[in-house]
Structures are given as structure tokens and as C-alpha cells.
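During the second half of the funding period, the structural biology subgroup turned its attention to how the target accommodates small molecules. The most pressing case was 1,3-dihydroxyacetonephosphate, which had performed well in the primary screen but for which no bound structure existed. We therefore specified the complex as follows and requested a full 3D prediction, including the ligand pose.
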Amino acid sequence: MTTVDLPLLPLGKGKDPDSERGVECPGDLPAASDPDLVARAQAAKEALGNRVFVLGHHYQRDEVIQFADVTGDSFKLARDAAARPDAEFIVFCGVHFMAESADILTGDQQKVILPDLAAGCSMADMARIAQVEDAWDALVDAGVADSVVPVTYMNSSADIKAFCGKHGGAVCTSSNADVALEWAYDQKPDAKVLFLPDQHLGRNTAVFKMGFTLEDCVVFDPFKPGGGLTPEELDRARIILWKGHCSVHGRFSEQVVDELREKIPDINILVHPECTHEVVLKADLVGSTEFIIKTIEAAEPGSKWAIGTELNLVKRLASQHPDKEISFLDRTVCYCSTMNRIDLPHFVWAMEELVAGNVVNHIKVDPDTEHWAKVALDRMLALPGKSEKD
Ligand code: 13P
Ligand code: SF4
């Protein structure tokens, strides 16, 4: 593996970060130094057998992903969760909004467990339901709400998904945002989309996949009256982008792309659509985590890649494909800190509690929210299979 002078630093193990964030693990967490953790996880998984189904997002640590029955991006995992109605427990190694979606898509008899409740998502936290309701009121006041179809990225809380379900909208993921937008524009004559909460995925999809211009996009800032937009600006817009972003993917820069291209002229730049528009503009390929994996699998031996997505995935791809030169598209480490909260001690703790008959960290969405969020999720799952058109 070539690192192109972009050092991949090992992640240190220190004291439990949850206690620093005020989310205490409600039980006795095994010590990270316990040499038996792998054996304990294996034993708990064997003891639970088919009663448990473990899902692992591609951004999870290797120490956890080794116990996943299936791995995937958020779209694939939502589908996989729904396809195992016989499993009593779904242990979700990912972040909170993914576990909520799994709860919504699984049966009432099934229980979804998130091994660490502090595994949130800073992007999802950038759109709160009260802010979105206020924004809708602003769209009503501006006289445009009747033509707006809300579409929310999977990376949002269940109540935002429910809001979209109630208002005729849908959910999308990074692998089908283009198809979801096409669907949304078919819902009403002269439709506009309110895209939540990731402005970058919304803008990149609108411009690179739908043929809109940057002038067709406006950014709604929830901290400004009326989103900081005039009624005329809202009226002219084809897509209203919520002012949210991913703090991990937002780090990739044009400068590093330029540096790499100068140093390695035949390098391929492959990025996730949560990166900024400027970075995507300079990249060779853009797509979801699943697309990134498939692209590397299909790449020629000896080909050179710099990948702009979460570091656990980039490191895994580099070790799985030693015949290709894979680098990380940043000078410094860039793990998703909340994805990384699910570590082996939390996984072992949650699994052993299940063996002992205690359901811990149960993620349960209330019935009304669940109903409407499912409407929005089902609209996404019913979309035609095509996506990632490049
Ligand atoms: P995917 O939709 O590609 O799984 O991405 C989820 C995510 O959190 C990206 O930051
Ligand atoms: Fe959220 Fe970004 Fe982490 Fe994905 S990588 S879970 S969008 S903070």
C-alpha cells in the first residue's frame, strides 16, 4: 500500500469517551485491554445463534466488523434489516439514525440494539424537528410550500423522516439520491425539493446527476429568519438545501487533490458525495460507500487511488487490495468519531447482556413517528433499482 506521504495514524485507546460526552454506558463495560474480548464476543454470538443478526456499516472498526453477519452502506443495511424477520435481536454496529431506521423497518417483535448510545451523527444533529417545522412555516409564508417536496437523507433522525412522510416526501441515501430526486420532481408540477440535512449531497446530486445549475440551488440556514432567503429567491430555486454537512467528509480539500495529481499524474480520485462540491468537481469518480468498494474491487492491479471517505473503510480497502495503490485523501487522520464509538468492549457488553436475558440500549421509535417515517422509507425502498448513474 502506498500512503503518498499521507500518514495513517493508529487510533489510540484511552478512557471510555462516552463518559466524557455525558452518555454513560449503563453497565459494566469490559476493559479494552481484556485479552479475551474476541473470544467473549464469539462465545456470545454462538450462544445467541439465529436469535441475533449483527449488521455492520462499512465505517465500523475492523475489531467489530469481524462479527457482522452482513456489512453494507446505510441503504443496503436498511434492506438487510428488513429481510431478517426471524431474528429476535438486531445488533446495529453503526450510528443512531441507522438503528432507528432498522427499528422502523423490522417487526414489532424484533429489538434493535445500538451497542453505544453515544454513536450519533453530527450531520443528523444539524437538522432538529423544531427547526424543520419552523422552516416549513417560512416556506408557507413565502408562498412556496405547496410546490415543495421534502426529501431527507437517511442520515437524519426518525422524526425528520416522519416529517417527510407526512408532507408527501421520501428518504434517500447516497446510492439513490438521484432516483429519489427524479421521483420528487415527478410528484408535482413545478416541484421544488427541500433537501435535508446534507447540503453537499443535495447540491452534488442536483448539479452532477440532474443537470441543474448552482443558481438553481439555495441554502436554507435554520439559524437565520426565513432561512436567510427572500421569497423571490425561494420562488426561483429548484432545490432548497438545508445548511448541514458531514464534518468528516467536509475535511477533504481541493488543495490535497491538486497536490496528489501533481505528485502522481495517473492517480484516480474517488470520493463520497458528502464531500464539498469543489472537491467532487475535481474528482474522477463519486459515489456511495458501496460504489467506492465496487470501484476498487473492479480496478486494474497496479492502479492508483486516493479515496475521500471515512478512514476505517479506506484502510480496509487498502489491506484487502494490496495489488492496488490506495491512499487516503487527507493529510491527517479522519475517522468518524461517532462510528468509532462502537468498539469491542461495547459490542461484547451488549451481546453478553443479551445472552443474560437483558436487552440493553434498545432503540425504539414511538408508534406515530414510526408510521410516518416508514411511509417515507417505503417510498425510497419502492424506487426503481437504478442509481449511481455516472
Ligand atoms: P452511506 O449512505 O454511503 O452508507 O453513508 C452513510 C454515512 O454516514 C456517510 O457518511
Ligand atoms: Fe455522520 Fe459523517 Fe459520521 Fe457519516 S461520516 S455518520 S455523515 S458524521
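Two results from this model are relevant to the next phase. The chain is about 40% helix and 15% strand. Residues 73-74, 154-155, 173-174, 246, 274, 288-289 surround 1,3-dihydroxyacetonephosphate (ligand 1) (CB under 6 Å).
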